[in-house]
Amino acid sequence: PLPTGDAFPRVFHRSEIQAEEKAMCGRSIFAQKVAAKRAAGAAAMSQPPVGTSQLTAGVVVQDNSCPHILPEDASFESSDQDNSREIAISHGPCLITGEGLRGREGEMEAQKIHEENLEKLHSMSHEKIQNEQEKLLTQLDPSLVSFLKSRRSKGDIKGIPKQIDSACTRTEPQNVWTASSKEVPDMDGSVKGQQRPEEEKMKITEDDLPVKPQKDWIHMDTVEFEKLEWMKDLPQSRQHKMKKGMQARFSLKGDLIPLDADLPTYLGLHHHGEEAERAGYSLQELFHLSRSQVIQQRALALHVLARIIQKAKQGAFSLVLKGSVLRLLLDAGFLFLLRFALDDSTENVIAASVHALHALLVSSEDEEYLDKTFSWYQGSMVFPFLPNEEEDDEDEEEEEEQQQEPKSNILEKERRKKSKEENKPDTDVARYDVIKGLLKTKILHRFRYILEVVCPVPVVVLDTLDILTRVARHSLEACHQILDCPRLLETVIREFLPSQWSPPAVGEREVLSSLHGVPCAAAMKLLRVLVSAGRSVSARLLNKFDLKCYLSRFVVEEPQDLPLQHEEAVKLSTEAFRLWALAAGYAQACDLYSDLYPVLVQILQSFPGLTGKCCKDSFLFPLYIQRAAAVVTLLTNVTLTAGCTAELHKHLSRSDLDEGPQYPPPPVTWIQVSGLKPTLEACLKRSLQDIGGSDTWDALQPLITTYFIYLGAYYSACSRQLSVNAVESVDEVEQLACEVLLPLLQRSDIRHMWELLKPCSAVCNPQSCSPAPESVASIVSLSCTGGKPPLSLVGLKSPFPFLTALLFLINNVISIHKGLVTKFSCVLESREVNDYLLKSWTAESPCLTHCSTWVVRHEYHLQYFALLLAHKVMVACPEQSQHASVYHCAAMTLLSRLLPGCEHLAHKLLEGFIFNHELIPEGRSGGPEAADFSDILHIRADGKLMQPGSVVLNYPNPSRGTLLEGAYQHLPSIRSCYLLHCAHLEVALARSKAVYEGQTYLVQSMLLPETKGPILPSDWPFLPLIVLYNKVANAETRGVVLNTLPPDLVNTVTRNLQWILLLETWRAKVLEHIPTAAKLSRLFCIFLTGGDLFLEGPVHSYTASLLSLYCQSKSLDSLQLDVPLPGLASFYDLYIDLLEQFEGVSFGDHLFGVFVLLPLQRRFSTQLRLAMFGEHVSALRVLGVPFKEFPIPLERYTSPPEDSLPLLKLYFRTLVTRALRPSWCPILYAVAVGHVNSFIFSQDPVAQEVDLARKSMLRKTWLLTDEVLKKHLIFYKLPNTDNPLGFEVYKQLPSLRQRYLNMVTEQQPNKLKAST
Predict the structure, then answer these.
(1) CB under 8 Å to 1201, separation ≥6 — which residues?
(2) How do residues 562-586 score in pLDDT, each as one tens digit?
(3) Which of 398, 814, 898, 1234 could join 1198 in a cystine, given CB atoms 3.0 to 4.6 angstroms apart?
(4) Ramachandran angles phi, psi of 564, nearest 5°
């Protein structure tokens, strides 16, 4: 608009517009008036400058004298430069119009810029203009070139001829777009030479309208067709023009609409502007609709987005859409869109936002499988749902610094870190953790308001409770925030867990008008998940909210007697028993056991009738089985708690109070729980008798599993009771074994279960733990959406929970009755068990995701109990050790895979399994002799016998067999060494021990530690060496010099090397996952600890033997020093430290020298050799490893020829300056001579600089006064370690080299001879 002096546009009456103008123009009155004002203003300001054509009313009058019309075959080069300039002057600027500036200033500024451009063009020559033009055309995007030309092609309005544009077009190079070869869309989407569809739409008539306007209608005397265009029918779908990469559109049900779908308009899927002919709505349009001012539109958009998320998580779009829908929504701010919608005052919008948030965060399948595994062995223990990815990498650096600082500084750092976390914006936090980001937005307070004040419909209440349950699974911190939120839990318990309520008027939940005042299983589950967070949370809930009363209320009555829907009543009772079981797992709420003992007995007596009470096909039968399993789990935890009572009373009776913290004994004794064992044992026998078909077996299997776990826990606690008669216990377990366990193992159902181990294993089938298609890192999921296959670890046909519980019971029975060991050896005689264990340790470790950690933890339990049984059988029956090596390898692999929370199992493996003589039969059955024989037969690459133990001091090293024999004899000492170096796991070990040994009064939480990797590092066999090196390195970093090392240092290092040598010889496949470079870098630690540790006899011998193994051709071929190594920031920096240490304390040791020489092979980085011959050239004087003691073929150093000019110059300089001599360093002398000789006689085409350098080096060689070096450099032939020099020489130069030498040195042709 033009600037005026008025604050508002002047109001004019329609009478000012003449009638003929109204009839002629099809535009609105306001548009006509504004257009007239603009035309008048433009005419007033349009004054042509000097030398330009006359402009009249904005129309350009073309000057016919300008020769702008060119023939078809004419080129731009033939046009006269002055004529082109004249045309440009006469028509003014084409691209710069000054429209963004005000009034006449814009026109004048545009004209000024135009004249400056013309002056610059006039000062340039024609050739220069042509070159610049071609340069621009090759650099600019073709679409931009088309747009610039379209400014000229549309210039007819301004009087610019199109012939000039066509002339410019013919000057473009052929490899760039030209107008004649391709049509390129304009910036507005149209194609030059074609009429735009929008222009066609404007040309509508009365016949195109579905409703004919009548003149007698008010304000319809003049029909403005452009305003009625929206009434036209939709354009035809352009299916033939559709292609991949188009925008996805969804129906109101969240389904993806195919591109070729032709849906009717009455479905309501065409109410959008873009691609009006296509049905459905894009995500962008749904986002826009969710912020509409119309309530129904906002609610509809959120509901549609929720359905899209649900289908995306089910994988419905993974094969048809590019990218992740969930990730796209989160990146677009969908999370905070829902958070804003949750603050809406309209109940419909609140319900829609809760629905969408539930679809985003909650997976009903995940909760279903977590409930299913609750009654498995240690199934109530779960990992927190914390994302693994942090927003930055500062945590790792802080952890390294914390190891070097006192506790006060560590606490201060943690406080600063927490403060920094609180000050981060919500969006930054939600980017890597959605739950934590939502908690920062005070979403818990909003949920409390919704439940307490809004009182929404039952569906919204259930969704809200599910979201709160998902938040509680996040972490202990999230649980504390739920507890601390004012009136949140009070509202949940008061409204959804009332002790008294009126029976609902209807039996179906879906038609209830309100869920407030009615008990709800989802509310009880929320409390149960909160209790699992920790014993402090459990105590707060039990004491503050008096949960015992609520538990009693829903436990005493049978589900069918509760005035609720039958299914909901069963679920509510099940959740109540699970909550009580978790509290009993902390030794809490056990006083209820005495109060409700008759009720529990009555429930147990009803178990045998479960099969007849509910039909197998009824959907209530699995629910009753889950309830029965929860009851048995409760009794298991109460029994374990009662097993600790006598021990705690004994501690309290002692007068010495300094022995440790005192714990009050729980209010339940062993006598009170021992009476239930016969009842449960009878239930087990009855269940095994009732099993007929496979359907009944699958249905009753979860309950039978809990029976086994209960009996195993009972006998584990019974063995610690002083009041129990040991003879009676032995008789009981023998009767159980003979009547139940041994007949069970002979059943075909059990044999079939052993066969299902491999198909259902998550370790053997890692794809079963693969993440869901729409999984995002910021929202943790167990990838159970859509259900797990029947043949998977948590599937319907999985044998793992049953067999784990069975092996758990068998091991506890054998612990009481040692004579039953041989009877249970039939388990290990099963071919399926041995095949599974073999496959488990040979398979690659599964990638650690939240799904895989949750699943493989249960599989590791089965492997542990199977190996524990194998250990007991082999100790009692040595003749059963034919599979000992398989069991030992499986145990080694299991130890390196165990996850946090299983520290007790790892300690048990280290203590009694890994270093057990019985599991390493090679040590007593000819293994050392076989190792010596293998060394004798080992052939080197050159066809000669290799001497692996040839790296010596002044006395011969013992053979590898002798060393292995010593290592086998010192296995107990080796075990003590490794147990000592696992002392940093002491706190975690104590917590894990309390869980696995049933010390419920010490259990702190049912949440397992956050998982970032296995308990032990992958290279744990090298752990003592790494700990020693880190101790020295950290001390040096703080400026402390360790003058004295631990007195038992030599013994510790020797034991470590003994174990590594034993594994490398007899368990090499177990260490295959550790790169050879990583193994060598760990051995470097022996030389980097300071002092002369490597000169100690045992250390030197075992290190030399290990080095000989790593120098074999297979190991050398797999050696890679240029890839990232675990636990090592830079191999180059480590090697520089090794060089400096070698220069300082090596004493010319040959073993140390071989370690220094090993990384200098030709195929490794040139930087390593540059460091040796550059900054550390003094090391060459003491690097005197002889050829006969060097275990690596010299060809790995000399082939292929060196191509680094700086390194070749260093080679030549060290040779000429005598810094490198054959008497000092024979290995590198032969290497340097070989590379220099190959370089100076090379005649391959190279760069001029390299050619000049090699000719110069050859001339300098010819002029050397050192005749010996001169002969070596000129007459070098090939490497040969049998020669004292390490290489052979020509007797006389070949003719080709002779001619080249004569040419370069400008000598007379004559034959040179090597003899001196």
Answers:
(1) 1235, 1238, 1239, 1242
(2) 988 999 999 999 999 999 999 999 9
(3) 1234
(4) -140, 170
